[in-house]
Amino acid sequence: MTQLLQQQAVLPLLVEVEPRMCGQPVVDLTAGCSFGCIYCPFADRSARRVGTLRPTVRDMPAILRQPAPPTVFFSASSDAFAPQAAPHTHAVLERWLPQGTIVGIVTKGIVPDRTLDLLADYRAQIEGVSVGLSSLDERRNRIVEPGVPPAAERLASISRLAARGLPVVLRMDPLFPDLDDEPAALTALIAEGERCGAWAIVAGYVFAWGRYLRRLRREPLLADACRYMTERAPMAGGIGWGVPLARKLGLYRWLAEVTRAHGLYFQTCGCKDLRLHDNGGLFPTRCCENPFFTRPLPLVTGRSAAMSQSRDRAGGAG
Ligand code: SF4
Predict the structure, then answer these.
(1) Which residue segment(s) compose the domain that 248 sits in?
(2) DSSP secondary-structure letter at 208?
């Protein structure tokens, strides 16, 4: 315990510019993440960098003394609503939102009610809340994301965000080839997102490298999927192994069509494969820079256009 407290005292907490998040200012309130997704290199690397063995809260008094940043993205290497992070996330939001900070959030956790109410009080500053859910198969989810709440709870969290008028995204990322990218499964997931009030879908295939790719290959459920990860892709900040570009383009093009048929926006993450940015305008690829579609996008139809107009009337970011 003494050692843990010493670690907390020396772990600085900074707002950093993160290249693989479209160069956005990001903040991680913990080093490491108890959700323990087996495809995630970032939480493990951030914990190793500061020498912790378990998710460790950073120096909260220091961050609360810092000036509020104009914009911030939660989080690059941890989950802002993992149990060890959620109360600290609330404290930081409570501090920064009244000072005008624009906030974007990506989480696989459950946003507590009091934080939902806080976000709703500053709705015009919330660029969006993106809830990660790649599959409705709970056996798959327990193996791949052992600490993350069940799919039904994540969908309920989308409903609660949407009920407060917050821009909410269903983030289907990462998708494992063959395991997660069957059209029927994806269509069912998109329909669930729409039913719960999601405004948009973000999707992206899994990537990995080095020790993290070896970890995926050791998991029997993922062994077949890993056989399709045959191509090195240029990513923001490095190189990663993933499915061939043609498979990515084919799936994302199809998802863009299906998603639009549901009246939702679609986007993928070009930081995870820089070649995707050059897709001839088939779908947007800057889900961090413009994560939640509060700025104009080229692909606007049907219900999406109506939502965009209603946001403009509400004075949201434009
Ligand atoms: S929730 Fe996010 S940060 Fe945490 S382990 Fe999973 S992918 Fe990594």
Answers:
(1) 2-314
(2) B
